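User: Reviewer 2 asked us to show a designed sequence for the structure in our supplementary figure. I'm pasting the structure tokens here. Could you produce the per-position amino acids so we can include them in the response letter?
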């Protein structure tokens, strides 16, 4: 097969269906950009999970005098003394020692850090000192706490079930629950991106099929002559398949450009999310560049397969 003939036929086909070819390129570019973006989003969520789950603590907040007073008033009002949390009074030194000892004996616990009311007040002022509420908070209103770091953050329920409702303990707060809510939202966003990507891929495939059919119809005279002189089906089909592959490759290159631009202008420079949101460990260039070959491969394979299938019943010898 002469390469010059194939290349000339590709050029003719692309020029004849310029509008539809442009639509194919745009739809392929958008769908593959969403494909690459969804891969990056999944990797980012997994990376964030590993980062934040490792930092997630289970915090045991201890009862102070104000909690005990409020609990006693609530219990007396409801006529059920002893039911409300901290109704038996503020935490005692013996209770604190017992709680710390039991935490130290648990195999799931990696470390235990005690925070006094004064330390809690200092940390609160550092974070919220500029707010109106901070000026009305006093150290005796702050709760003492044990911050428990687990060997496996997924085992947080073991600590929660062991200490929730115990005398001297106000609440057991697991930070992983709040983190799970965040990751649940991110997963929903990722699934939405995948759904849009699939819709765009279907649109791109339909455009490719229609473009190939129109191109085959417009050149039915040439293909008829090629049949008469004994050209094989593969020889006839190659120019059409290559047209679709070229359009898909151009769309894939645009998709790669969008992914690279997003990393450069949104994450690293321009918007600069990496510097503005330092709580998130954003992915680097290695992760982005690793996805580009997949985008290019699908950009070539998808249009070629769609064109091959579309031509089977139109260009049979």
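Assistant: Here is a per-position design you can include in the supplement:
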């Amino acid at each position: 097969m002469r390469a010059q003939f194939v290349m000339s036929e590709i050029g003719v086909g692309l020029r004849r269906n310029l509008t539809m070819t442009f639509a194919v390129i745009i739809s392929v570019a958008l769908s593959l950009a969403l494909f690459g973006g969804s891969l990056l989003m999944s990797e980012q969520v997994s990376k964030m999970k590993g980062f934040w789950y490792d930092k997630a603590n289970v915090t045991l907040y201890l009862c102070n005098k104000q909690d005990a007073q409020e609990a006693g008033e609530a219990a007396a009002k409801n006529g059920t003394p002893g039911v409300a949390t901290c109704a038996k009074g503020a935490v005692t030194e013996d209770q604190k020692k017992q709680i710390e000892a039991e935490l130290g004996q648990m195999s799931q616990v990696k470390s235990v850090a005690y925070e006094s009311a004064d330390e809690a007040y200092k940390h609160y002022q550092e974070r919220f000192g500029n707010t109106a509420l901070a000026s009305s908070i006093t150290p005796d209103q702050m709760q003492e706490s044990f911050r428990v770091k687990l060997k496996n953050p997924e085992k947080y329920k073991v600590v929660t079930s062991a200490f929730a409702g115990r005398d001297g303990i106000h609440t057991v707060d697991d930070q992983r629950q709040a983190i799970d809510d965040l990751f649940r939202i991110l997963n929903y966003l990722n699934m939405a991106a995948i759904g849009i990507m699939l819709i765009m891929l279907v649109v791109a495939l339909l455009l490719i099929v229609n473009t190939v059919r129109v191109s085959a119809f417009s050149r039915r005279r040439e293909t008829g002559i090629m049949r008469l002189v004994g050209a094989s089906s593969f020889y006839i089909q190659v120019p059409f398949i290559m047209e679709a592959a070229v359009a898909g490759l151009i769309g894939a290159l645009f998709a790669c450009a969008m992914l690279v631009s997003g990393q450069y202008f949104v994450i690293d420079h321009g918007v600069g999310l990496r510097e503005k949101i330092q709580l998130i460990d954003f992915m680097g260039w290695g992760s982005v560049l690793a996805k580009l070959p997949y985008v290019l491969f699908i950009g070539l394979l998808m249009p070629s397969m769609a064109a091959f299938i579309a031509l089977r019943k139109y260009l049979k010898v």
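For the response letter, you might also mention the following. The longest strand covers residues 109-115. Residues 242 and 301 are 11 Å apart (CA to CA).
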